Amino acid sequence: MYRGIATFTLDYGKCPRWLFERMVRLGREMTRVLIDEYGPDEFIKRLADPVWFQSLGTVLAFDWNASGLTTILTAALKEGIRGQEKCLGVFICGGKGKTSLKTPEEITSWGQKLSLPENKTNSLIYNSKMAAKVDSSLVQDGFQIYHHTFFFSRNGAWAVVQQGMNIANQTARRYHWFSEKIIDLVVEPHSGVVSDSRGVVLNLVAKESDKTRKLSAELVQSGYKTLMKDIELLRKHSSTLSRMLALKFKGEKLTFLELANAEFKTHPVLAEDFSKSCYLEKILARVTDEKPKTYEELLATPGVGPKTMRALALVGEVIYGAEPSYEDPARYSFAHGGKDATPYPVDRPTYDFTIQTMQRLVTKTKISPFEKKRINQRLIQHPF
Questions:
Q1: In whole angstroms, what is the distance from residue 10 CA to residue 12 CA?
Q2: Distance between the two ends of the chain, CA-based, in angstroms?
Q3: Of 10, 167, 222, 337, which has the maximum CB count within 10 A?
Q4: Shortest CA distance to 96 belongs to which of 81, 82, 75?
Q5: 3-state secondary structure of 270
Q6: Helix crossing, 238-250 with 224-236: angle to 10°?
Q7: What pLDDT digit, counting tens, does each position of 41-52 carry?
Q8: Is 353 helix (H, G, I), strand (E, B) or coil?
Q9: Cβ–Cβ contacts within 10 Å for residue 166, how many?
Q10: Could you tell me if 307 and 268 are in contact, meaning their C-beta atoms sit under 8 angstroms apart?
Q11: Does the predicted model carry a pTM greater than 0.90?
């Protein structure tokens, strides 16, 4: 099973009340059956898998390839288990927009209700915040995070499902995390990647970006004056740098007009502004003063965001030769492939297993035979 990132068309509008209520009811039943069948920790693990997450959304009657599946499904699950969290052993925090900002507060509240040790609660909050920071600052793919949901079990297993939007091309990309698969929060923390499209991405979590991560930590250790000398050097040669990067990404000789093409200006890497930035300098002054020892500590510093990490990465590449990865972490389209073998042939055993398992679980829910029949039809008809 592939777990990680999925890309969808950007969905507008509001979910009809009747549909949401139906999803809440079915979501409650599916959650109960899944936990009875596999236990709370396994339920968390399956939500962290885009295949299962996607198929669950299909079971609950939402469009398989719409960005709204993420936000509505997580909201329906959260509402569906409301009041039954302790019994089920599963807890859901956060959501879309402003609700996502309440995630730490909700985790704290559950920590108090469950009498969790303070360090365990703080660890859950830290992991939630770092997942959001990594996908917004270290995977610079042009998608702005607007949805963040944190799932955890009483035993400490946790998962993150968050989504970003790209207004320019009208798409949304979903990011999945699972605690069991993570060795290092800033080194390929996603246990797999699923996406429909790929592009040029400043991928600072790739293993190939190890030199960049180490050098970035060293740069902030060197002191403010030393680092600013490097920044000023980039500012002085910003025009030449832009041309160099453009040629690099294009992979061919370009005319002046091509160099000025909008695709370079809007890309998060190539759009770097080397002009005076008081905020950037303020953040660099802070981190060079605090001197975080590791790349993770650097990212965790309040105020550090995508611009700071991008500036350090470009200093490392242009001045010191530590080239980061610009390869999009997206590897696969939906987990079962396509009938035309694009991007790879259909994995029939996995495809059949997913359908059969979902059908078996649906059979155990306390819903009408008519609804079970409709759900099974959707499972057969929709590619996940």
A1: 7
A2: 12
A3: 337
A4: 75
A5: coil
A6: 70
A7: 999 999 998 878
A8: helix
A9: 17
A10: no
A11: no
